[in-house]
Structures are given as structure tokens and as C-alpha cells.
Protein: HAD-IC family P-type ATPase
Organism: Agromyces bracchium
Amino acid sequence: MDTQPEASHAQPADEEGTAWWSLPPEEALAEARSDGSRGLAAPEAASRLADVGPNALVSAPPPNAWRIALIQTTQLMTLMLIAVAIVSLLIGQVSTAIVVGILVLYNVVSGTRQELKARRSVDALAKLQTPQARVVRDGSIRQVDATELVPGDLVDLEAGDLVPADGRILRAANLETQESALTGESLPIAKSPTPNDTGTALADRTSMVFQNTSVTRGTARMLVVETGMRTQMGRIASMLTEVGSGKSPLQRELDGLTKVLGIIAWGAVLVIIVIGAVRGQSVTELLFLGTAVAISAIPTGLPVFVQSLLSWGASKLADQRAIVASLNDVETLGATSAICSDKTGTLTMNEMTVRTAWMGGDHFRVTGEGYSFDGRMLGATDEPVEAATLGLAISLPNDATVSAAGEVVGDPTEAALIVLGAKLGIDADAARRDYPRLAEVPFDSDYKFMATLQRMPVRGELRLVLLVKGAPDVVLGRCATMLTTERELVPVDVDAATAELEDMSATGLRTLAFAARFVDDADEGRVAADPMSWVQELALIGLVGIVDPLRPEAKVAVEVAASAGIEVRMITGDHAVTAGAIGRELGLGAGAVSGADLKAMSDEELTRRLPDLHVFGRVTPDDKLRLVRLLQAQGEIVAMTGDAVNDAAAIKQADVGVAMGSGSEVTKQAAKLVLTDDNFSTLVHAVELGRIVYAKITAYLRFQMTQLISLILLFLAASAFQIADGVALFPTQVLFLNFFVTLFAVLGIAADAAPPATMQEPPRNPKLGIVNPHSVAEWLGYGAVIFLVTLVPLVLGPDVPSATEPTASMTMAYVVVGLGTVLSALLMRRSPESGLVPPIAAISKFLVWPVVIIVLSTELGFLQRLLGTVSLTGWQWLECIVLLLFVVVAVEGDKWIRRLRATERERLAAGDVGAPAEVSADRRRG
């Protein structure tokens, strides 16, 4: 057609433009200015291609590595370290400058590599394009690149094809498509040209096919209505581009900590230099002093050691079949307070299973899981049912195959029926060979049933039987009688069958009906010629209820998450009734809502109702993204799981995006965690490990900050009281302790056993952060104790400490700081629990080495020259050890008092009805 139709033909579709699914085929052709038989003319197609661009998903250009490296270099911690390295070179401290320079290089390279991964998800989506399409141009069918398709093209589809663009179906024969990648619907969708209502949700638009979904059955001709970034897949690509990769809670907290430390460190340097300048010290002496203080005050090892702990967590996760994209994501897992989980394949097995059957007024239950042939159909007395006739009735009108290993070819629902037949003693493949079809009515979405004609054994003799399988309402409407369990024919009890169907549907089961018509041999020719006309006056054989069963461990995992204070919500493309039934079986919180109802709610209303909503059915990719963002706006740390392309945007937006190993490449590239076993319980285990990692990082920071604060106080005191010209320790001594001694302490903390009851505590509050009043008070208190015991040998030592030559007093201070670091790792690995109680074997074997290193650094000549140390006498070593006993008493005494106070609060709460809730709230805040 060459003329533009009137605008009245187009139906509004809110943000999506024309509601193509609501237009009859002829009006859709008119709206698209296309010819239903000849398609577009080649010149017109070329003109449209120039106007709308190629049918391709466009990804943003990847970030430049050098630019990212420059951004990494300008980070506050890196700038501080660069300043230290430069000053060290200026004053001749070459070894110090080299060590710091290596640290800077490592931080920049590591950060750059992680950032370069940020654009992979859209790139992967762009590669999903199907290469070729059969298009009608100028009245003939030709093969063209899918990228050359334009709106108005006519494209032919058949089973096995990937749909190359979004299209309106013009005609179809037995068409079904698999849309789980887009909508989350686990079963194939029957399609037809029949228009849908304007407000029909994406997953229910049966008159449309969508780009990169697959045709599983039948043939069709479609009118291309959207291409490229205007398709539903393109919209997901756009959402992926718009969703930024935010920093993890740990990154944000460490950034804040770095700023605080930067202010403290450079403030201390400034104070000490001013004091030195007032006293008339030379510029070289001031720079040397400033470098020593800066190295003492800047946590030079913080990025490296945190990375090593996160790397340890990542390897542990990998052992549990969970792969993280970035090390920082390990810790983020531990802060998770809300999980939004897909249903199919994550909480369920993604293997359709017959759970219940109804025949002749009697109920039967079916045992066994998934596509395994193990199991039986049991009656009311739990006696196995021998029903070979039923087995044949469900196996013969069926095109699926299931191997003994559980491999399925064909429709998942039909596969579930094949498995039921096997449990009734029927080998479907053998039965179809022994009783071949003489005629058939293929399944069609218009009449919603399938029928096959064959000779099969009935009461010991071969009879000609027309078997029918289909939608219960349709099949019941064509039944006049029903088979009893004694295989007698009686009038059909429609009311009883309908009540049974309602009960099955209310529990989330998908239902199918089976019926038969016994045909005289004389009528074989007439039935074979027109089997459709014989699908009436049927005898109802029975009804079955089918479900995608829960993973056995999913319910336990949900309970563990609940005990850990994590709210689990299920978000799925399935219908809300089915999803709600699964939610009840899982033990999720109350409240189920459909995607249509969700879309009708404002953000304010949805936010208000979220605490009472835990199941979301028939949702779109936009709905998933919206839910994640609203939860994040409430301060939740959100984990989002999924396996399909429709999950990718929400997964990327989530604090912890979780993809299934069997899912699409797009989803895995957008995710921060990939579960290679597709198991929800693995995610809960990963959260537990994330909490353990965070507890270890907190323990590390507790002892590291204690050391830094003690060193800052030490240098300030040395400068104020002119001890060793203000240089309490040489820069090389501080660097040596930071790298060699602290390294083993971190390894010990990483190897320490997990804190007890990790998953019995509520999620930590990320707003509180690592730097909070309690932690700062702890750092200052413990740091002050170590500072005081270290100051003793500098003031009362055997000689006068010097900034220019090694002395016993400074060596003793160095030993106290070094052994204090080792002791801090042991004492501060847990709080307020004691660090001296078992299990300590795992950490103690690591802490032996730094003690050896400290001893060797005071005895070996080359280390004495490098570090500025001297040999100590036995009495001097004993004095250092006695000083450290004060640290043990102070730290363990403080924790003992805090444990007593906590016990007292719990005792008081036990006698106060309102107290437990308040205590729980306090725990969440703290």
C-alpha cells in the first residue's frame, strides 16, 4: 500500500507507541504501509532502512583503558601514596619510594581491569542478533541479513527460527514460541493472529512475536513493526545502558574511611612539620620527618590487604559453585537485606511434573520429581495404581520424548505426561511404534486440544480409539460420559470435575483433561478423513495437575534467609495464582500481586505496600527494574536473581545481580554473581560467606586502625617532646611492619574460623558504615593503649633514641609495635567475643611467622642495616613482652565489660514485653 492510513486505526499504548497487538491484521498492514501479499518494494525498504537504521542492538563504546587508569590514579589514597613516593625520592629514601611505587601501580592496574568489565552486558546482548531472515520483497521470498529488516517487512517463520524483529502475526498454523528469555514465562506460548485488548500485558500478547525469542512449533508470517533499539530487546539494551554500576557498600565505606584518614594523616604531618620548623630543623630533616609520619599514618597496605581478603572470599565462593565478577561483590553479599528471586529454575527445578490426578471421582497423587521415571501414582490408601489404559491415553496423543537420563525433546508439559506414563508402566516411544496414528488433529490455540486416532488395547482387545488431550474447559464441553475407576461409562459429572479443576488451580497447578471416543471399525475411513468432526460425545478419562516443583533445598534456604533477617520476594513471569501457590509452599511472606496491578500502583502506594507483598506474577522487565530501585530507595541492599534477558536490567541495577549458570550470556555479563548450579540455596550460602568476609574485614580494620592511631600518637608525642628529633620510628621500619608483619596477620584473620551464629543475626546497616562512633571509640581506646606501652622504651629505654643512627630504645619501640600488631590480630579478630578462646589453631599458625620475622630483623646484619635496628638483650625482650601484657588486659577487659552489659540488656529485655522488638531494631541499626 502506498498511502498512509488514517490515524484512527492506531491504538494508544502508553510508552510503547502503537498497540500493534490490538489491531486486526489488515489494519496493522495499513498502519505499517505494507502490502499483505507482496510486502515492501526494494526501493521503499532501502528508504526505510536509511530512515530508521539497521535492525541491530547498539552498545555504547567501551571505556578507554587509559582514561580509567587516570581516574584510578586520581583517587585520594593513590594521590597520598604518590606524594609519599615523590618526597621519599627527594630525600634519598629510594627503597621506600620503590615499595610505595609498586603499591600504587598494583592499585591502578587492579582498579582499571575491574572497570573495563562494565560494558560487557550490552555488548553480549548485541551479539544475540539472528543472522538471516526469510522476507517477502516485491512479491517474492528472499533471504536477507536480519540487520536489513525494516518496519513493514513481511517475514516467514517456522519451528527452530529465532524471531528477527518484533512482529504482528498475520497468519499462523500451530504456532508456539518460547519467550522465557523476554517474559520469564517457562512454557511455550501459543500464538495466533487474533487481536488482543489494548491493555494486554507483554507476556499475554499472543498476536505478537518478539525479537530473539524462538519458534518451537508451527509456522507463521509476521509483519515487522519494530526493529533495532525500538524492539522489546532493544528497550532492555537501553535500560542496561542507563543502569550505572554503582560502588559496593564496602567501597563507599572505605572511600569515607580514606578521606577521614587523609585528614588525620596530613593534619598530623602538618602539625609535626610546624613544630619542627619552629624548632629550626632543616628542610631535609622536615621532609624526612614528614615522610615517616605519612607512612605511619596512611594505611598504605589497606587496599592490598582488603583485596586479599576479598580474593579469599571469592575462591571460597567458587568452591561453592558461585562465581563473582568483582572482588568487591564478595562483601556486598554479606550486606544483603532483600532478595528478589526468579522462580523457574532458581526456586523450582524447571522440570514440569504431574502432582495429582482425578479419574471417575477419585483422587490420586503422583510421587517422584522432575523428569525422573522413579515414582508411582497412588490411590487413597497409598496403594500403587495399575492403569495401563490411562498410561496409553496420555502417552499416545503426545509428541515429546524423555530419555531415561531425563533429557527432554519437545514441550515441557508433554514431557511431564510422558514421565507419568512411564510411572504407569508405559514406554511412550514403544507405544507410539506399536499403536501408530491413523489420523490426528494437531494442537491449535484456536481450539486448544490435540486428538489422535489409533488402535489400542482396551479390556484385552484392540479397539479403534480417538484420544483427546487439551484445555479442561474445552474438553469437558465435548464430553457426554466419563470413565469410572472400574472402567464403566457413566454420565459425566461436570460439577465435580469443575470443582476439582478449581481446587487444582487454586494450588497453582496447571491442568489438562484427557478424553476418548471409542469408534467402530466400520467408521475408520470417515474418522480418518475428518477427525475434527468426531471430537465430540467424548468419554472423560481424567484430569491431571502439573507443577514445576520446588527444589528440595529451596524451602530450607528461604527459612535460613528469614532467620538472618533477609526478606525474600519471588518475581516471575508466571501467572500470579501459580506464583502465589509456590510462594505459600516456600513459606514466603503474605501478599501476591500481578504485573497489571503493579503497573497501576504509583511509586508511593507500592512503597507503602511492599512490606506486605512477597510474590509478583506476570511482571515485565520494567516492573523488575522498578521493584529493585524502590527497595534500594528504602535503604535495602538488594540481590536480584534471574536467568533470562528480561532479568538483565534489574540484575545490573541490583546491589548483587545474580545470574544462573544455565542462563543467557547477557544476564551473566550483567550480573555480579553467577550460580553455576542454578540453585537458590547457593545464593543463601554466598550471603553467609559474604557476612563472614565482612566480619574478617572489620576485624582487620579494627587491628589495622589501632596500629595506625598508635603510630600517629607516637609521632605526635615524639615531635612534641623532642624524642629522637620527632622520628619515633624510621620510615623503613614502618613499611616493613606494614607489609611483612601485617601480611601474616591478615592471612591469620582470613583463616580464622567463622564467627558463631553468622546467619542468626539481622543484616548489618550499611548506612552505619565502618566508621561509626562505636568503632572509632574502639580504635582510639586500643590504639591509645599500644601508643602508651610503645612510648615507654622511647622515654625510659636503655639509651637515647636518635633519628640518625640505630638505638636500642627505638628498636624496643619497633619490637613492641611489631609484636603488638601480632597480638592485635589475635585479640581483635572478634568483638566483643574474646580473642583468646578456641578455636585459635587456624590463626595462631600464621602468627608464628611475623614473630620470627621481628626477631630476625633485630639480629640479622643486613636487616639491621636496612631497618636501623640493633640486637636486644634477653632482659630487653622480656621488658617488651611485659609491656604487651598491658595490651592484653586492656583489650580483653574492655570486651569482657561489654559482654556483661549485653547480657544485662538481654536479661532486662526478657522481662519486658516490648523490649525484644526494640533490641532487634537496635541490632539492625548497629
